Amino acid sequence: MIIERFKLPASQEDVATQQLNTPLPPHQGSLPTMFQAGYMYNQDFGDGIGLRFRPVYYDTLSPNIARPDDSMLSMFDLHIIYASAIDEVWLRQLDLVSIESLNTSKTGLPGDGGYAWALHFGLKSQYSSCYNCTIFHFSSSVGKATELSSNTTVRVMLEANAQTPYKDIGTIGGAVRLALVTTPMPSWKMQISGKRLHYLNRSKTYLSKISWEQRYHLSREVDLYLDYVREGSSDEVSLGIAKFW
């Protein structure tokens, strides 16, 4: 049988695919602490600067090295905005805990893989286009993730939300969230996601959000990022650099 196997032709798999499928050693992964700074433009308040500091662990767009693929585990992720047109500084987001596990099947065998799940809570702006509108929020999700290929994963999540009151916005809601994560090149990773949140105690109030996030890994110490977000009827684009240590 071994002799017959040696008679098989050589694999036609190209070098790029081999690079994507070959696990890298843990010491080549991103370092856990991140500081990010960059330019942003929001349709409602114009030009601005975004600063972000995350002391520990990783997010969905971190390289898939020494961790579950396309997962998230971060704490105390702080994001601050300065808008020059209105001369205001405010807290965009402070994720106290963010966990997301896709739990995909790696072999296709029964019992391998399961439900995807997520848990997030912390402070954030009610909308990306408002300031001094901070709320405390909690969300929990369950769903299913599937690997479309060795470098692309899609997930569908059902999400339950609760938040503190803000104006006439509801405080309890449910959402459907879709996301696709892909790695076109070993150093380039992106996520396209969409979400529509309905508030159960405000039957006519909902919030929709579409985002396209991408990150180019120059090294384990430096990333470049480019993000586009459309929330409601407002557009926002941001780009900049992240330093890890």
Which keywords apply here?
245 residues, mainly beta, Porin, 12-stranded antiparallel beta barrel, 2 helices, 13 strands, 59% strand, globular
What is the compact description of this entry?
The chain is mostly beta strands and about 240 residues long. The chain is about 5% helix and about 60% strand.
Q: Average pLDDT value?
A: 89
Category by helix and strand content: mainly beta
The number of strands is 13
CATH homologous superfamily placement: monomeric porin ompg
- Portion in beta strands: over 45%
Q: Which term fits the overall shape?
A: globular
**CATH level-3 fold name:** Porin
Quickly name the level 1 CATH class.
Mainly Beta
Rg for CA atoms: 20 Å
Spans of at least 5 consecutive residues whose pLDDT stays below 50 are: none
Specify the biggest β-sheet.
Answer: 12 strands, antiparallel, barrel
Count of runs of 4 or more consecutive helical residues: 2
Total number of distinct structural domains = 1
Q: Reading side by side through the largest sheet, how are the strands ordered?
A: 1-2-4-5-6-7-8-9-10-11-12-13
Tell me which CATH architecture applies here. Beta Barrel
Distance between the termini: 51 Å
Helix content: under 10%
The succession of helices and strands, N to C, reads: HHEEEEEEEEEEEEE
